[in-house]
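Q: What residues go here?
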C-alpha cells in the first residue's frame, strides 16, 4: 500500500502486526514447536468406578499453550463443566460422574490448541476411552445364616458336632477327646472327667442365577430415573455376592440369558472384584430376546438365589430343576414396580410425553402382572420363597424364615 500510494507513513501502521508476527515465530523457535507440533494426550485417572463415583479426565498439551477441549455428554453420566468445554494453560480437566453401571465412553474429544499470542492453532480429535462402572457397593441388611452348610470350615453353625466354638453340651470324657476341652469346673464338682462338646462351623456355596433374557423398561409415567429389570438384577446380584463373600462363603454366578459370562465359585476380595467386573461388562440390548442357557446340575444343599422378573416360562422351569436337584432356592423378583400399576388408569387419560396415549400398554401389563401373580403363588405353595427387590433389606425376612425353619422340629417319616 505504501509503494502504490507513495505514502511511506503507511508502513508505520503495519509495524505492530509485523512485530507481533516476529515475536510469535521467535517463541515457537525457542520452544522447538516449529518442527514438532503439539500433540494432546487424554488421561483418565480411574478406569473403574462405582455407581455414583467420579473419574477425572485430563487433556495435556505443552506448558504455555492455550488448550480448549469439548466432550459430548455420555448417556447415564454427568460431565462437569456441564457443556463439556473448558480452556486451560497446557492442560484442561473435566469430571465424569456415572449414574448407572456399565461402560461409559469418554469421547470422541475435540481439542483446539493455540499459542498465547494466537498466531497459530491446531485441531485434534482424540480417540475414545472407556470407564467401567461397577454396581454400587450396597451392604445387604440380612443375616448370614444358611439353611444347609455344606463346606468344611466357616461361620455357619452346623447341626453335627465336632471342632468348633459353639457349645453343644457337657458330657463325660471319652477316649480320644481333646484334653484342652476338659471342663474342670464340672470335673471338680462331680469327681469325674467331663469335656465340652461343640458344634462344627462350616461355610457354604452360594449360587446366584441371573435372568437377563430380556430387559424390561419401567413405565414412562414414574418420576425420576427408574431402574429397569436388568438394573435391579445387576444391583441385587452385586449386593448378595458382597454379603456372602464378606462372610467367607464361596459364591458363583450363572446367567440364563448369555449376557453375563459364568463365574466359577470362589471366595475373598478377589472373587468380589471378578464378579463386579463381569457384571459391569454386560451390555444393554433393548428389545432383544436371548435364548435360555440351562443349568445342568447343582450341588445338593447349595443356597441358590434366582434374580428374575418371572416372565419367561423357561426360567420358571429352570427354578423347578434347581429344586429337584436339592438346592435351597430363593427367588428375587426384579420386575419394575411401575409395570402393571393400575393407578394411572384411574381418573384422567394417561399422558406420555405431554400427549394422550392411544395405546393400551398399561392395560396389557396389568393383565400380564395378574397372570404372573399366579406363578408367584404356585412357587410359594411349592415352598420356594419369592421376595421383591426393594433394596438392601429385601432378603432379610426370607433368610430369617429359612434360619427358623432349619431349627424347627421335623416330622419323622415311618
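A:
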Amino acid at each position: 500500500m505504501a509503494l502504490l500510494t507513495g505514502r511511506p507513513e503507511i508502513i508505520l501502521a503495519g509495524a505492530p502486526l509485523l512485530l507481533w508476527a516476529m515475536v510469535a515465530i521467535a517463541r515457537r523457535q525457542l520452544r522447538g514447536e516449529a518442527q514438532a507440533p503439539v500433540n494432546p494426550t487424554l488421561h483418565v485417572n480411574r478406569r473403574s468406578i462405582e455407581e455414583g463415583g467420579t473419574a477425572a479426565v485430563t487433556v495435556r498439551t505443552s506448558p504455555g499453550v492455550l488448550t480448549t477441549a469439548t466432550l459430548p455428554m455420555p448417556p447415564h453420566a454427568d460431565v462437569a463443566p456441564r457443556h463439556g468445554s473448558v480452556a486451560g494453560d497446557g492442560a484442561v480437566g473435566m469430571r465424569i460422574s456415572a449414574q448407572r453401571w456399565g461402560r461409559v465412553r469418554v469421547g470422541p474429544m475435540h481439542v483446539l490448541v493455540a499459542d498465547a499470542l494466537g498466531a497459530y492453532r491446531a485441531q485434534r480429535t482424540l480417540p475414545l476411552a472407556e470407564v467401567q462402572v461397577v454396581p454400587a457397593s450396597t451392604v445387604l441388611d440380612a443375616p448370614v445364616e444358611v439353611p444347609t452348610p455344606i463346606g468344611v470350615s466357616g461361620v455357619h453353625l452346623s447341626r453335627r458336632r465336632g471342632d468348633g466354638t459353639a457349645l453343644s453340651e457337657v458330657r463325660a470324657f471319652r477316649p480320644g477327646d481333646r484334653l484342652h476341652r476338659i471342663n474342670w469346673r464340672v470335673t471338680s464338682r462331680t469327681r469325674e472327667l467331663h469335656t465340652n462338646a461343640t458344634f462344627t462351623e462350616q461355610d457354604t456355596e452360594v449360587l446366584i442365577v441371573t435372568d437377563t433374557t430380556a430387559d424390561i423398561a419401567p413405565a414412562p409415567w414414574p418420576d425420576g430415573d427408574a431402574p429397569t429389570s436388568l438394573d435391579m438384577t445387576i444391583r441385587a446380584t452385586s449386593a448378595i455376592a458382597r454379603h456372602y463373600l464378606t462372610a467367607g462363603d464361596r459364591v458363583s454366578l450363572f446367567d440364563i440369558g448369555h449376557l453375563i459370562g459364568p463365574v466359577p465359585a470362589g471366595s475373598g476380595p478377589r472373587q468380589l472384584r471378578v464378579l463386579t467386573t463381569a457384571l459391569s461388562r454386560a451390555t444393554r440390548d433393548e428389545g432383544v430376546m436371548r435364548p435360555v442357557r440351562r443349568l445342568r446340575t447343582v450341588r445338593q444343599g447349595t443356597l441358590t438365589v434366582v434374580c428374575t422378573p418371572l416372565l419367561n416360562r423357561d426360567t420358571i422351569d429352570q427354578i423347578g430343576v434347581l429344586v429337584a436337584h436339592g438346592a435351597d432356592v430363593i427367588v428375587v423378583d426384579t420386575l419394575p414396580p411401575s409395570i402393571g400399576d393400575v393407578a394411572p388408569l384411574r381418573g384422567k387419560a394417561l399422558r406420555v410425553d405431554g400427549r394422550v396415549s392411544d395405546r393400551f400398554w398399561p392395560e396389557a401389563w396389568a393383565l400380564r402382572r395378574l397372570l404372573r401373580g399366579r406363578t408367584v403363588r404356585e412357587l410359594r405353595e411349592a415352598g420356594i420363597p419369592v421376595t421383591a427387590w426393594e433394596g438392601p433389606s429385601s432378603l432379610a425376612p426370607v433368610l430369617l424364615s429359612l434360619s427358623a425353619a432349619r431349627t424347627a422340629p421335623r416330622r419323622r417319616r415311618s
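A: Context that may help when evaluating the design: Residues 205-407 form a domain with the Rossmann fold fold (CATH 3.40.50). The CA atoms of residues 69 and 111 lie 4 Å apart.
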